[in-house]
């Protein structure tokens, strides 16, 4: 089976950052802030964040800040969105540079996205999704600004998206999906409202996501995919049911999705690698305490030492 190719994955992440002119980079351009967060968090979990030029990264992140709205864009010149804003704040947290933010402006941008029913829109265009509730709550918590929104209403909206199977959908009545469950459980966890989750019922739905090959899928009848190693596993950790799945088989599945020659991790064995699945594979292994990796916080999706620095650092 073999081990995690730490060095090759570090090289892979760095090479993607340098390949900005390629077709792939062009297609993914609007996602660059998210991609930077996935890549940099992976490097930190692999204990190699110093492989990038910190000042260069931070000045690029700040060049994506939209002064008028207070939100961050995916890349220079695009529109701000709550997801890019969370990624930007997470990147600054990784480097311990939250001090350069205008916290008041950033948190006001997010607070303005909250709707009357407690839900959140992703941007001024108004699409509503529990993913945006997570982005808003996680980001405001990192900034110590949760008091800028109505947390009780935000929690109530998420609870209104809970299904009979214990899972959560993107809006009320939406089908349960592992990615959405992570967002809802993560937001409830950060808001101190996990008592709204039916742990046994949800834990059962989540552990049924493990397929014969050891990997996890996102919904019944779907193939396993490495990214669910994060969405499903982090949710199981938060509700204290992670012992309900076979961790050894899952770790072997993730390791079998590595490109052992050029680095990177793919969604399933022998497919093309990308930064998204490399991050979720490494993050999943980190949740299972794979040797040599930093441990990751299941709710904030940041290394535990970074989260501790945010909440316990002396002023
Ligand atoms: Zn995937």
UniProtKB/TrEMBL annotation:
Cofactor note: Binds 1 zinc ion per subunit.
Top EC category: transferase
Keyword Signal belongs to the record: no
Name of the molecule in the record: Geranylgeranyl transferase type-2 subunit beta
EC number: 2.5.1.60
The protein's assembly and partners: Heterotrimer composed of the alpha subunit RGTA, the beta subunit RGTB and REP; within this trimer, RGTA and RGTB form the catalytic component, while REP mediates peptide substrate binding.
A Gene Ontology molecular function term of the record: Rab geranylgeranyltransferase activity
């Amino acid at each position: 089976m073999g081990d995690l190719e730490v060095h090759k994955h570090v090289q892979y992440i760095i090479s993607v950052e340098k390949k900005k002119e390629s077709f792939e980079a062009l297609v993914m351009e609007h996602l660059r802030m998210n991609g930077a967060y996935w890549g940099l968090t992976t490097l930190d979990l692999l204990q190699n964040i110093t492989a990038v030029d910190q000042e260069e990264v931070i000045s690029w992140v700040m060049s994506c800040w939209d002064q008028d709205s207070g939100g961050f864009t995916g890349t220079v010149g695009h529109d701000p969105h709550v997801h890019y804003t969370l990624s930007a704040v997470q990147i600054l947290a990784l480097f311990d540079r939250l001090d350069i933010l205008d916290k008041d402006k950033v948190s006001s941008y997010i607070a303005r996205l909250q709707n009357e029913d407690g839900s959140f829109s992703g941007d001024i265009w108004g699409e509503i999704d529990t993913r945006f509730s997570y982005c808003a709550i996680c980001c405001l918590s990192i900034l110590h600004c949760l008091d800028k929104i109505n947390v009780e209403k935000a929690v109530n909206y998420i609870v209104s998206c809970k299904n009979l199977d214990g899972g959560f959908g993107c809006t009320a009545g939406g089908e349960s999906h592992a990615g959405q469950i992570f967002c809802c459980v993560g937001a409830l966890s950060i808001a101190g409202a996990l008592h709204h989750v039916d742990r046994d019922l949800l834990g059962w739905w989540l552990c049924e996501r493990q397929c014969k090959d050891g990997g996890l899928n996102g919904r019944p009848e779907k193939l396993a995919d490495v990214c669910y190693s994060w969405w499903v596993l982090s949710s199981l950790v938060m509700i204290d049911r992670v012992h309900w799945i076979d961790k050894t088989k899952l770790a072997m599945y993730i390791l079998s999705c590595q490109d052992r020659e050029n680095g990177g991790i793919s969604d399933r064995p022998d497919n093309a690698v990308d930064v998204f699945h490399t991050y979720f594979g490494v993050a999943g292994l980190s949740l299972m305490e794979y040797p040599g990796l930093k441990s990751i916080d299941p709710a904030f999706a940041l290394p535990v030492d970074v989260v501790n620095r945010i909440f316990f650092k002396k002023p």
